[in-house]
């Protein structure tokens, strides 16, 4: 039977099985990041939006066979979500529906997805988006049958900092201070206005930033770097490390990513070299913390960003399809 997890005590009781099924499903997939029951519970406890979040589990008795969750409408990816960014929101993961071995393809995923879509529609969300890799044919078919169609492409790019063009020397940036939050969010909301509007999100607010900072596993204040131009904040970059991911894969990889945050420069400062300064600063920061490679995600159609990353030594390693379904 289908069960909605809407109380925190339900989450605490089911978290060990949710984590187990998640890890069984995702192990071996691109960018797999193991998650623990403790992480699920901690995020649920900290998230003030927990009651709004559609979280459903398919149960046989007390056994979780499959589960699915999505961001509540309006305030996406601000730190409290459970799926598809379980645990970290640093690593970019595919949109699989965790299902116990032997129960895939038996209709559970479709029922869960339909219920989550219904909840999001009831909240006023116009569309639901997911990401999948091209080789996940079964997953793509599941979403196709559920009414999803491809609307865009994302690409994963990776660089080895020691081989990046300019020498890795300190640059004119500094770490984020509490009093910088308002200016950072102004830059962020301006830079990502089109993406925010396309997803139906609201602009990020100070409380959203605090939620993100306080609940993301792996957040490190040293990785939030700011650039200034003539005493004005011109842009920011986040350079984060997910130790659970690195342990699982045996790598030392940093990420230019933190939920919706990556690298952004205010419109009036574009073309002044601020982007290059920030990227170099991110590389320096990650190398200084022992990382040997760096990964980021970009929109396939964002030629300006792709040119910047290519110039910094990044090469494409994987492509993702963005699928969208209208809700109503």
- Taking strands numbered 1, 2, ... along the chain, how are they ordered across the largest sheet? 4-13-5-12-10-9
Question: End-to-end distance, in Å?
Answer: 24 Å
Which class of the largest domain in CATH terms?
A: Alpha Beta
**Shape-level CATH architecture of the largest domain:** 3-Layer(aba) Sandwich
CATH homologous superfamily placement of the largest domain: Gcn5-related N-acetyltransferase (GNAT)
Helix content bin: 25-40%
Give the helices and strands, then pairings:
Layout: E1 2-4, H1 8-26, H2 37-46, E2 55-60, E3 63-69, H3 108-122, E4 127-133, H4 137-145, E5 149-159, E6 173-175, H5 181-191, H6 193-199, H7 206-215, E7 224-229, E8 232-238, E9 240-241, H8 243-249, E10 253-255, E11 263-265, H9 274-288, E12 293-299, H10 303-311, E13 315-326
Parallel strand pairs: 10-12
Antiparallel strand pairs: 1-2, 2-3, 4-13, 5-12, 5-13, 6-7, 7-8, 8-11, 9-10
Description:
The protein has 328 residues and is α+β, with helices and mostly antiparallel strands. It folds into 2 domains: 2-152, Gcn5-related N-acetyltransferase (GNAT) (Aminopeptidase, 3-Layer(aba) Sandwich); 158-319, Aminopeptidase. The protein contains 10 helices and 13 strands. A 6-stranded mixed sheet has the order 4-13-5-12-10-9. Strands 6-7-8-11 form a 4-stranded antiparallel sheet, with helices on both faces. Strands 1-2-3 form a 3-stranded antiparallel sheet. The longest helix is centred in the N-terminal third of the chain and has 19 residues, at 8-26. The two termini are 24 Å apart. Residues 79-88 and 164-171 have low confidence and may be disordered.
